[in-house]
UniProtKB/TrEMBL annotation:
The lineage of its organism: Bacteria, Bacillati, Actinomycetota, Actinomycetes, Kitasatosporales. Residues 1-20 are annotated as: Disordered. InterPro entries: ArsR-like_HTH (IPR011991), HTH_ArsR_DNA-bd_dom (IPR001845), HTH_MetalResp_TranReg (IPR051081), WH-like_DNA-bd_sf (IPR036388), WH_DNA-bd_sf (IPR036390). SUPFAM superfamilies: Winged helix' DNA-binding domain (SSF46785). The keyword Transcription regulation applies. It comes from Streptomyces lydicamycinicus. This is Putative ArsR family transcriptional regulator. Keywords: DNA-binding, Transcription, Transcription regulation. Residues 16-111 form the HTH arsR-type domain. GO terms for molecular function: DNA binding; DNA-binding transcription factor activity.
Length: 111
């Protein structure tokens, strides 16, 4: 069955980790990468579910960008959903702030 989905152009839905299940070192590691911080800053400046992965202007290729989004999902920072051929994104700010109060504000202010 997965082969049929792939042949039909469908990809598996992304797996999301809830911030409550994320160790602080995982969150800090995800936020330590400059490309991932660019993704987070861009999401913080836009409404939920308005940006697809192709809307992000970062200095890495498609596969690397996909990896960075996976790291952000695993750290509980990003949620993604598929809409047609696009994968839309949202910053899980409220949930992440509840788990790590002030951390996201701190790193978004950092230069």
């Amino acid at each position: 069955m997965p082969e049929q989905a792939a042949a039909a152009g469908h990809r598996p839905a992304p797996v999301h980790t809830h911030p409550d299940d994320v160790p602080v070192l995982t969150a800090l590691s995800a936020l330590a990468d400059p490309v991932r911080m660019d993704l987070i800053r861009t999401l913080a400046d836009h409404s939920d579910w308005t940006l697809s992965c192709s809307n992000f202007d970062v200095s890495v290729g498609r596969a690397a960008k996909s990896h960075h989004f996976s790291v952000l999902r695993d750290a509980g920072l990003v949620e993604q959903r598929d809409q047609g051929t696009k994968r839309l994104n949202r910053l899980r700010r409220e949930e992440f702030d509840a788990r790590f109060p002030g951390l996201l504000d701190l790193v978004l202010r950092a230069d």
